[in-house]
Amino acid sequence: MKKFLIVALIIMLLAPFCTVQIKKQLYVKRIENYLIEDMSYPKEAILSIECKWHFAGLPSYWVNVIFSDEPNVVYVYFAHDKDNLGQFEHHTIDGKTLSPEQLNHFKSYD
């Protein structure tokens, strides 16, 4: 009985961490598929793609994408609703905001 309680406690402690990691992977895959299949980007155009999570943030999950032809610009995407994916922010690596005319991959979030 003691072993069962210890295992149950460990599972309860690990479950939130595992849930966050699974959601992060799911959202990265959603945005990657969106960019490649819906937006017709070649896979090589994506330099990096990473999901971020913040416990108290709104949104709590977002996906940062850096394209190979703009390695200093981070495009931020929503991935919560698989039917309503889109880019909602962009900034340079050092935090500066650029105008849409200065960006190669700007797509306003409708």
Describe the protein's architecture and organization.
The chain is an alpha+beta fold and 110 residues long. The chain has one helix and four strands. The chain has one helix at 2-38; strands at 46-53, 61-67, 70-78, 86-92. It has a four-stranded antiparallel β-sheet with strand order 1-2-3-4, with helices on one face. The longest helix has 37 residues, at 2-38. The relative contact order is 0.13.
Q: In angstroms, what separates the terminal alpha carbons?
A: 55 Å
Oligomerization status of the protein chains: single chain
What is the H/E string? HEEEE
What is the 3D form? elongated
Unreliable stretches (pLDDT < 50, length at least 5) are: none
Helix proportion range: 25-40%
Q: How is the biggest beta sheet arranged?
A: 4 strands, antiparallel
Round the mean pLDDT to the nearest integer and report it. Answer: 89
What's the arrangement of strands in the largest beta sheet?
A: 1-2-3-4
Number of helices: 1
